[in-house]
Amino acid sequence: MEADFKNIHIGNYIKKQIEQEEISIDRICNFFKLKEEEILRMYEEKSLDTDVLLRWSKLAEYDFFRIYVTHLLLYDGISHTKNSRKAKQTGDKIVFRKNIYTREIREFLVKLVASKQKTVVEVMQEYNIPRTTIYKWIRKYEITLTNENTQLPKDL
């Protein structure tokens, strides 16, 4: 399943992680104290209550909230760009935040460029990624992804 950070269906992400970790349905049912049908119904849900999502995160040992943070970083402009505009208006010194991009975000954006789904300019405009940043990622890892089976380096 390709990551879709714009249209999040949390049930799909949970199901994929549970399958990847090979967690048995019996263990899940015991953990939640629910019947199998209720667990399977959660896989179909586009969104879940935060308490339930927190429990899934603990069970799967995966931060499902990170998916929503990634959405905010990519689509709602929580970046230095908005802060830069505000600082310019007030005359304050601009402060850049380093390392706001998670490995998943970098991987997602570089794959978009490498697979020619988007140009570098489109990524810069749509996601407010500085030009030097995206070019640095591409140059550093010399990404030449040609198919889905090609893996990016772990330290990306």
Helix content: 55-70%
Q: What is the radius of gyration computed over CA atoms, rounded to a whole number of angstroms? A: 19 Å
Q: End-to-end span in angstroms? A: 20 Å
Counting helices, strands and paired strands, the structural category is: mainly alpha
Sequence of secondary-structure elements: HHHHHHHHH
Total helical segments: 9
- Per DSSP E runs of 2 or more residues, the count of β-strands stands at 0
> Main beta sheet: strand number and arrangement?
none
The domain count comes to 2
Overall shape: it is: elongated
> Strand content of the residues, in percent?
under 5%
Low-confidence stretches: 144-156
Mean pLDDT figure: 78
Protein name: Insertion element IS150 protein InsJ-like helix-turn-helix domain-containing protein
Organism: Chryseobacterium defluvii
Domain Insertion element IS150 protein InsJ-like helix-turn-helix: 106-142
Pfam family, one: HTH_28
